[in-house]
Amino acid sequence: MSTQKKGLGRGLSALIPNAPESSVGSRDQHSTLEIAVDRITPSPFQPRRSFDEGKIEELAASIRNQGIIQPLVVRSKGDGFELIAGERRWRAAMKAGLSRVPVVLRDASDHEALQLALVENLQREDLNPIEEAGGYRRLQEEFHWSQEEMAEKVGKSRPAIANSLRLLSLPGEVQQEVSAGNLPAGQARALLGLHTEALIVAACRDVIAKGLSTRETEKMVRLLLVGRKRRRGAPLIDPDLKSIVENLQRTLGTRVRLIPKARSSKGKIEIEYYALADLERIIQTIIKSPAGI
């Protein structure tokens, strides 16, 4: 698998290999321009939802001393320019008092600008875990990329991307704690084993209050599940049914639960998915399988 990262110029040209690069006057396609900072507007495709003002101030201090080393990437928009990549540098440049900034001008459609903004930010590895997961989900939904394709574009492993996407299955309150840095991603993923929103939220608050490690969180989840099964008096699953569930999990590549109805031969099957693309894959597997599965 290719691990192309992290030079921005190489990443952009790899994504749009035939896209023309705008030039002004006699400048060639690799040159940079300088434009007024107030003629630039932020990208609507920016996956980052929050900016650490302390880090922006640190970057502004560096810009005051050394200038902007890596140009911003923009495209023409109306009478001005719209950012494709480099919003942190743009914000820091304004804070540093710069009136003009170096840019590379790109000819990109909305579709291409979205793709570039997502990949560029995901390559930089400074999004919070929920922003990163949201970026992957947009790549799936907007471009129908598989996890393998995303892994190649951003230089991550496929399991790392799958684990990132799982965070989007967490309740909103828990996602907010992850975004704020109060709950590490490892502990957050461990909570997914609890399945119900109420249990996950309660356990999240407990993990934060006690400062539990990932291993301690996993242990807590196991104890909660054991206690829950004892309280329910869950019936034993017939060995034949258990074998069917295991076969379903192997075939579908995801967790499958058989939930029998108390004092009845009825029940239901619960199949987990972690993103819309994952759901589509599971549905296609079911449709294409002999006899339905």
Account of the protein in words:
- It is built from 13 helices and seven strands.
- By secondary structure, it is of the alpha/beta class.
- It has helices spanning 8-15, 53-66, 87-95, 110-124, 129-143, 147-154, 158-166, 172-179, 185-191, 197-210, 214-232, 239-252, 276-288; strands at 33-36, 40-41, 72-77, 80-85, 100-105, 256-260, 267-271.
- 52% of the residues lie in helices and 12% in strands.
- It has three domains: 8-115, Alpha-Beta Complex (Conserved hypothetical protein from pyrococcus furiosus pfu- 392566-001, ParB domain), CATH 3.90.1530; 170-234, no CATH class; 239-292, no CATH class.
- Helix 2 packs across helix 3, helix 5 packs across helix 7 and helix 6 crosses helix 7.
- It has a five-stranded mixed β-sheet. The protein has a two-stranded antiparallel sheet with strand order 6-7.
What's the topology here?
Layout: H1 8-15, E1 33-36, E2 40-41, H2 53-66, E3 72-77, E4 80-85, H3 87-95, E5 100-105, H4 110-124, H5 129-143, H6 147-154, H7 158-166, H8 172-179, H9 185-191, H10 197-210, H11 214-232, H12 239-252, E6 256-260, E7 267-271, H13 276-288
Parallel strand pairs: 2-4, 3-5
Antiparallel strand pairs: 1-5, 3-4, 6-7
Helix pairs in contact: 1-4, 2-3, 4-5, 5-7, 6-7, 9-11
Give a summary of the structure in a few sentences:
This protein is an alpha/beta fold and 293 residues long. It is 52% helix and 12% strand.
Overall CATH class of the largest domain: Alpha Beta
Number of domains: 3
The biggest beta sheet is recorded as: 5 strands, mixed
- Can you list the strand order of the major beta sheet? 1-5-3-4-2
| Secondary structure: number of strands | 7
Report how far apart the termini are: 31 Å
Q: What's the tally of helices?
A: 13
Strand content: 5-15%
Task: Give the % helix.
Answer: 40-55%
Contiguous uncertain segments of 5+ residues = 1-30
